[in-house]
Amino acid sequence: MAGVAGGACLLSLGAGLYARQASALPATALRPPGALAENDFLAACVRCGRCVRDCPYDTLKLAELGEPVATGTPYFTARDIPCEMCEDIPCVAACPTGALDHALTDIGDARMGLAVLIDQETCLNFLGLRCDVCYRVCPVIDEAITLERVHNPRSDRHAMLLPTVHSDHCTGCGKCEKACVLPDEAAIKVLPAKLARGSRAEHYRKGWAEREAAGGSLIGEQVELPVRGLEGKAHGDTRVAPGEGPGAPAGLDSGWKP
Amino acid sequence: MSVTHDTSATRVRGAALRGAIARPGAEAVAAKGWLAAHRWLILRRLSQFGILALFLAGPWFGLWIVKGNLSSSLTLGVLPLTDPYLLAQSFAAGHLSYREALLGAAIVLAFYLVVGGRVFCSWVCPLNVVTDAAAWLRRRAGLRGGKAPAEQARYWLLGFTLIAAFATGSLAWEWVNPVSMLQRGLIFGFGLAWGIVGGIFLYDFLIAARGWCGHLCPMGAFYGLLGAGALVRVSAAGRRACNDCMDCFAVCPEPQVIRPALKGAGQSHPVILDRDCTNCGRCIDVCSQDVFRVTTRFDRSES
User: Fold this and answer.
1) Scanning A202, B177, B285, B286, which has the fewest C-beta atoms within 10 Å of its C-beta?
2) Of B153, B184, B156, B163, which Cα lies nearest the Cα of B91?
3) Does residue B153 lie within any of the structural domains?
4) What does DSSP say about strands B72-75 and B79-82: parallel, antiparallel, or unpaired?
5) Rounded distance, CA A47 to CA A42, Å?
6) What are the mean pLDDT values of chain B's consecutive 10-residue runs (303 residues total)?
7) B97 and chain A in contact, CB less than 8 A
8) How does strand A159-165 pair with strand A188-191?
């Protein structure tokens, strides 16, 4: 009897340990919209695959044994087939257990992951070219991804339009990663939020926010020392208007000779 | 094999010792004809493959009668069915499911409470085909011995799988559960699950006779407990005609359940009440004397 109980205990212990060991989701595997936090998801999902069946775009699939995702649980790989963000969210409606939370009724509130422009060395827009594809395909264009115009220091006369992701609107659908024109790996990738985001610096008090909240600086008025070339500007304002400021303009037309 | 219908008991016994264990039912085939001697087996295979076909008709032919798998499914868009064992694991892991899954599990529970929990094992579970094949091959190969764990191991395993779910906060057993894995694999894609199914086959074939279904499977144990008071039962109502050929014992996946009913060991009536009996009906097939029949647990009559 003791041997039998011990054997059964060992077998379940093995399964349990294996489950713990393998429960870390790889970065490229994204859960369907509305999925509970990973730990809760693994308690709730019965691996029935009904979300997979009701996905009209064959985005979702069930993990097979040997894949680095909990066996039988649904996931998708953005670079293969991204989520098309159906308005009626059929995958969530299909879930019988609540592993996909039915409280999600607006697909815009889904947070499957967070897009990160992870490789600024290969992204064509970062090279100063106009690719913009990730921005164009974004279902939440101009909110989840914006093009931020910055000076191109290489040519010194052009702008770079940098695709910039905003976490308060990005659903993690992965259409940007799928559309990235680079041949194999995308420069923009959807990562699990935990990987993509840093923790907020709660201990760090932003002076400008504090000043606004308090109606004035918390440490009182400071002695303002003049900054050469910027006399007459407000304290801290270092912006330089065209034709103003020290030195001649640099660049190809500057006429500068060594 | 040419065993005639009116063979004397002693000669049948001799036949049993020589080869009937390798080919149980030969006598029944001679007596009743092949079809009658395989009736329940054929019905059972039709049920197993038919249910699988319902699940596969969608992904293979676009005929969406049933969506999902045995873990949880929706039939014709209205009937939810959920495996109560999986839901029990999910509950142990700390999640209370939506009403749809609970309702589905209640329907399944009610069904098996009536027809016998382990009807799931013999009439629905696709892994049963694998272990039946292993048992058949083992008989034909004449393999004896091996090392089977105690029959109670499954109940311990059942308890520990629930504890593992509680301790890990996840459906830990579903990472390796060959029963759900085989059906899910057939419907959604296998990956390396072939390895686990192949392992079960080899284990049953080479190491332990009926080792998985009869000794280890915690899912079978769960359904066994569920059907402990089931209405539908097999009865050895014609036990007076028994000629001790032993074919039923040879073919039964849970041979220990037969003796009390057939030989009156510890009970007077002929009904097999043991919760481990899967109601597979194979004993009815292989009996040339028509000793067994399907009836209710309250029908204690003998013929």
Assistant:
1) A202
2) B163
3) yes
4) antiparallel
5) 9
6) 46 50 82 91 95 92 91 92 94 91 94 91 94 91 81 90 91 89 90 89 90 92 90 91 89 90 87 92 92 91 83
7) yes
8) unpaired
Range of the domain at B134: 127-226
Substitution target in A1, A12, A18 with the highest count of B β-carbons within 10 Å is A12
Asked if residue B151 is part of any domain, the answer here is yes
The answer to the question of residue B80 being in a domain is yes
Query: Nearest residue on chain A to B193, judged by CA atoms?
Result: A65
Distance, CA of B50 to CA of B38 (rounded, Å): 17
Please tell me which of the candidates A4, A54, A97 has its beta carbon nearest to residue B90. Answer: A97
Please identify among residues 208-237 of chain B the ones whose CB lies closer than 8 Å to any CB of chain A.
none
Contact B90 A39 (CB under 8 A): no
Q: B212 and B183, same structural domain?
A: yes
Domain count, chain B: 2
Question: Do the beta carbons of residue B91 and residue A68 sit within 8 Å?
Answer: no
Task: Dump pLDDT digits (tens) for B85-128.
Answer: 999 999 999 989 898 999 999 999 999 999 988 999 999 999 99
Question: Is the confidence metric ipTM above 0.90 for this complex?
Answer: no
B interface test, pick of A65, A76, A92 with most B CB neighbours within 10 Å: A65
